[in-house]
Amino acid sequence: MAQAQWRSSNLFILVSMAMALLTDELLYAFMVPLLPYMFEHRLGLDNSIVQRCTLLFLSEGALICVFSSPIIGHVSDMTSSKRNLLLASLALAFVSSLATAMAESLFVLFASRFFQSLASNALWIVGIATLAENIGSEHMGKISGMISTVAAVGTSGGPVLGGMLFELGGYWTAWMGAFAFILVDIVLRLLMVEKKRTKGEGKMLDPEQEALLASEIPTPSDLLSEPVLSAAAAVESEPVVEQSGWRFYAYAFRHPGFFAGVTSFFVFSILISSFNTTMTLHVQRVFHWDTFRVGLLFAALQGPGMLLSPVFGWLKDRVGSRWPTTAGFLSVVPFFWLLGVPGDDRFPWANEGTRGQTIYSFCMIMIGSLLCLLNGVGNMEVTTAISELEAERPGIFGPNGGYSRALAMSSMSWTMGLLIGPVLSGFLAEVGYYEMNCVMALLCVLAAVNAAINLSSRRRT
């Protein structure tokens, strides 16, 4: 029993899932520096279409995430053990990554990318659902903070790792590094033991607690000695109708926190993706910065999250996500407005000497720091809403709960923001970079109102 206890401990489950999510981010990001080589040298494509193929390759993953999320969430909630789904996802990730590495035609490359994206989405949804079920939705703030840090490390370290291994040993050496991460994940998943779900309340028990409960099962004589329920009490305990299919989402969206969490996550995603689309071109045109300085700006945007996300996650577990999220949206409004000022002829005071560069860099650091308050708001709120709804009506989402379907909706909102954000910001930037940032600031104000009204506010002890 003691041997299995550490395998079902919160710490080991947290480490295992963190490793899975880190591997998933690394697997996506490390391919970026390899794609030009794959398209030009392995597939023999002309250099003039490499950029277009790279865009299609990366966009394919986002589209698959949007359409596959509800299906993955449904399958996950119909399965009592998430461990087998995680193992299947890792196996699919390994096989599809191997096919991607070996691809010598566009058809094989995009087909393998399809299955790779499917496995990646499953790892995220099932992995976070595993954390919520085993560690508890009341800790989703800290969990989301950890996830944000892991994602930032994977996103930032992936291209560095891929490029370094490619330079040191070539194409296949780079891929061996990715395969090694997947194999380590598979081993951790085989070692991990899920806690058992108790009936009714949906709580999870480790193997030792399960054994203690089993020893307390009443005997037939105990049952005979129990008083019989009155007819009135029997009438009151009406059977709960399970909400499945589209009824699950209709029922969940009636909860204000669920709706506000999904929409807040969607706006947050739009804000992040707008930088990827417009920032590089703007600073190169206005400040004539090189690639290194642009990279430093992205580090200023992403770096604070690696340090501040766990702290803000702990804060949200203590006071709820209403006021941190509201403060996050409102506090970035002046900095979004000020971000559009340098380079605009209507504000000559901001374009004297290097003042514009200083203002822009300062705003980027502040936005990167304050946006950490929004990390994980979708995952935190949807799991909290599901826990509250199941507490009111136990079994309403089936014997295995509804965390996976809820997290699938959160994942969809984030991915849709990543798809819509570049289109929206690119269109607005054609009108004017200042105008684009004013629209982003307005979105933040509207999202802050939504958060203040609908998100949860609670204090943990």
From TrEMBL:
InterPro entries registered for this protein in UniProt: MFS (IPR011701), MFS_dom (IPR020846), MFS_trans_sf (IPR036259), MFS_Vesicular_Transporter (IPR050930), Tet-R_TetA/multi-R_MdtG-like (IPR001958)
Keyword rRNA-binding included in the entry's annotation: no
Zinc as UniProt keyword: no
Highest taxon listed in the record's lineage: Eukaryota
Membrane topology (UniProt): Multi-pass membrane protein
GO CC annotations on file: membrane
Localization in the cell: Membrane
SUPFAM superfamilies assigned: MFS general substrate transporter
Domain Major facilitator superfamily (MFS) profile: 13-459
GO MF, one annotated term: transmembrane transporter activity
Residues that span the membrane, as ranges: 12-35, 55-73, 85-108, 114-132, 144-166, 172-191, 257-275, 295-315, 322-339, 359-377, 406-428, 434-455
Keywords, comma-separated and alphabetical: Membrane, Transmembrane, Transmembrane helix, Transport
Family that this chain belongs to: Belongs to the major facilitator superfamily. Vesicular transporter family.
Protein name: Major facilitator superfamily (MFS) profile domain-containing protein
Lineage, uppermost ranks: Eukaryota, Fungi, Dikarya, Ascomycota, Pezizomycotina
